[in-house]
Amino acid sequence: MNIKIKKALKIISQIFYKTFKFGSLQSVITIYFGVIIILVIVFMSAIIYSKFVKTVDNNAVIGTSQTINQVNRNLQYYLQGMNEVSNTVAEQLNSPTSNGIEKARDVFKMTITLRKDIESIAVFTEDGKMMVSTSNLPLKKGLDVKSEDWFQKVIEEPGKINFSNPHVQNLYKGEHRWVVSLSKEVKYNKNGKEIRLIALVDMKFTSIDELCHLIELGKKGYVYIINNDGIIIYHPQQQLIYTGLKNEKIDFAVNNEDGSYIQNNNGEKTVMTIKTVGYTGWKIVGISYYNEMVTSKKEIYYYIISVVAVSIIVLFVMSLIISARISLPIKKLEKLMARVEKGELDIYAEIKGEYEVKQLSKTFNSMISRIRNLMDEIFKEQEAKRKSEIKALQAQINPHFLYNTLDSIVWMAENGESKGVITMVIALANLFRTSISRGKEIIKIKDELENARSYLVIQQMRYTDKFDYIIEADEAVLEYRTFKIVLQPIIENSIYHGIKRMVDRGMIKVTAEIIDDKLLLQVIDNGLGMSKETAESILSKEPKGKVSSGIGVKNVHERIQLYFGNEYGLEIESELEVGTCVKIWLPKLKEEVG
Q1: What is the C-alpha R_g of the chain?
Q2: What is the pTM of this model?
Q3: Considering only CA atoms, which of 237, 240, 270 is closest in space to residue 253?
C-alpha cells in the first residue's frame, strides 16, 4: 500500500512541475491572487487571535493575583495571631491581682496548649533577665539576651512590633528549632510602678511552610516571601538559592510596587505577582509559568493555523486553474526561450496572437538581436583583457629588475655571503614560479602572498637596512583566489617611490581579510606619500602630469575591473610625509575563472 501511495505522489509531483513553473506568468498570477486573499485571512485571524490572547492573559494574571491575595490574607491572619498572643501577654502582666506573673505563666502555657503553632512565650526585663517563660528549660549558659537582634530592635524602637526572619531559636539549652519571632515592648505595673518589659513570642516556622506549600500555581509555579531588605523569609527551594544553583530577581520584587509583571526566567516567560503583607513590610512573590497559564491560547493558535493552511491549499488550487487558462499563449514563447538557453540564437518568434503576446514576441526578437551584439562586444573586451594582462605582467617582472637582482647575487657571492645568495636565489625562483603558475591566470591568495613575500625578501636584501615588512592574512582568506601578480607592482611602487628616498627605516605592511563580503588586500607603507590629486590621477584614464610610476598599478586596476566589474579594483589613500595605503577589492572566488 505504501509503495502505491509513493508512486501516486510521484506522478502528481511530476504533473505539477510540468504545468506549474516558479517564476512563470502562471505562477505569478497564482501567487499574487493567492497572497492577496491569504493576507486578508491572516490579518483577520491575527486580530481575532490577538484579542483572544489579551483576554486569556488578563484572566491568567487575575487568577494568579487572587491566589496571592489569598496567601496574603492567610499570612496576615497568622501574623495577627502572633500579635494577639503578645497582647495577651501585656494584659496578663497588668492584671490587678498581686500574683500577675504567676497567673501570666499559667495563661501562657494554656495558650501554647491551644495554639499548636506557638513554640514559646517569654518576657524579659530591660537588663535581659527572664521574668517568665513557657519553657521548662534554662537559658543557655553565658547567653546575653541583650545582644539578640530581636531584643535590640525593641530597645531602639519601643512602640513598634518587630517580626524577625526565620532563625534557629538559641535561647534555651538543648533546643534548636526554626521559628519566626515577634518582639514588642509591654508594661508591667508592680506596686503602682510601671516597669518596661520585652515580650517574645516564637511561632513555629513550619506553619508558614505548610501555608505556602498548599498554594498551587501550575505544575512549576511557586510562592516565596521576602522582607523589605530583600532577605528571604521563605522559599521552597531555599537550599538551591544559597548554593547558587538557582537565582531569583529579588531586587526587582523589593523595588517595585504590588502588581503583576512579565519576566523572563531562564528563557521561560513567567508572571511575577507581588503583594505586601500588612504592617510587617514582608512581600509575597508568586512565580507562575506563562505556558501553564495559557494552554487554551495554544489550542486556538493551532486551530487558526489549521484554518489558514486549508485556505491556502484551496486558494492555491483555484489560482492554479485560473492562471493556467490565462498563461497558455505564453507557453510557445517559453519553448523558444528554452532553445535560446541552449545556445540557439538564429531563431525568431512569430508576431501573432493577442496584443500582449505580440509585444512579448517583438521584445523577444529584439533581445536576440541585442544578445548577438553583446556577444561581439564581450569578445572584444576579452581581447582587451588579455592585452591589459600582458601589459601588467610586463610592467612587473622586467629585465631591469632581473638584472639588478642578479647583480646583487653576484656581489654577495664575491663577498662570501653564501646564505644571502641562497636566500635571494630561492626567493627569485619562487617569484618566477608563481609568475608562471603553470599557465594559470587565477591563483590562491596564499600563493599571491607568498609571491609578495619572495619579492619583499629580494628587495629587502638589495636595500639593506632600508625597510622592514609584515604580512598578515586571515585564515579564512587564504583559499580564495585572485589574479596572479596583483600585489607585486603595488609593493614595487611603495619601495621605489615611498621608502627608497626616506632617511629613516621604512615599513611595508601587506594584509588580507574579508570586509562586507568582499576580499580586501592592502599594501600600507609609511613612506613619503603623495598628494590627493596625484593619488587620484594614478587610476584615472587620462593621467594628469607625470604619473608614470603608476602604470603597473593602473594595469592591475583595469584588469580587475575588466574581469569582475567596476565595483572592484584599486583604491588609493595617501598623505604627504605620512604614507600610502593601496586597497585592492576582489570578489570571493573559490573556483578558477576561465
Answers
A1: 45
A2: 0.41
A3: 270
C-alpha span between 146 and 154 (Å, rounded): 10
Is 552 in contact with 493 (CB distance < 8 Å)? yes
Largest pairwise CA distance in the chain: 130
Q: Return the higher-pLDDT residue of 474 and 178.
A: 474
Q: Which residues of 291-308 are buried (b: 16+ CB within 10 A; e: fewer)?
A: eebbeebeebeeebeeee
User: Which residue in this structure is represented by grid cell 601588467?
Assistant: 392
Q: Count the neighbouring beta carbons within 10 Å of the beta carbon of residue 454.
A: 22
One domain, residues 73 and 100: no
- Tell me: do 67 and 188 sit in the same domain: no
pLDDT score, position 545: 46
Cell of 24: 512563470
In the 3-class helix/strand/coil scheme, how is 18-55 assigned residue by residue?
HHCCCCCHHHHHHHHHHHHHHHHHHHHHHHHHHHHHHH
SS3 content of the chain, % helix, strand, coil (to 5): 55, 20, 25
Residues 109, 200, single domain; the answer is yes
Render pLDDT for 486-541 as a digit per residue (tens, 0 to 9). Answer: 898 899 889 888 898 888 899 999 999 999 999 999 999 999 999 888 888 888 75
Q: What is the pLDDT of residues 310-322, one digit of tens each?
A: 877 777 777 777 7
CB 64 within 8 A of CB 262: no
Domain boundary among 378, 405, 435: 378
DSSP structure class, residue 505: P
Q: Which residues of 548-582 are buried (b: 16+ CB within 10 A; e: fewer)?
A: eebbbbbbbbbbbbbbbeeebbbebebeeeebbbb
Domain assignment of residue 362, given as a range: 341-378
> What is the separation of C-alpha 403 from the centre of its chain, rounded to a whole number of angstroms?
58
DSSP string, 434-479: HHHGGG-SEEEHHHHHHHHHHHHHHHHHHTTTTEEEEEEE-GGGTT
Check if the beta carbon of residue 482 is closer than 8 Å to that of residue 473. Answer: no
Strand intervals (E) in 39-152? 118-125, 130-133
